[in-house]
Amino acid sequence: MKSEYLIVLAAIVLFPAILSRDPKIGIRGNWKPLVKAMGITCALFWAWDIIATARGHWSFNPAYVLGVNVAGMPIEEWLFFVVVSFVSVFTWEATKYFMRRQ
Amino acid sequence: MEYTVAAVVAAVCVILLDRRLGTRVLRRREFWVFLAVMYGFKLIANGYLTWRPIVIYGREHFLGVRLGTIPLEDFVYGFALIGLSVVLWEYFRGRQARPAGRNSAPQADVGRAT
Question: B33 to chain A: nearest residue by CA?
Answer without folding.
Answer: A95
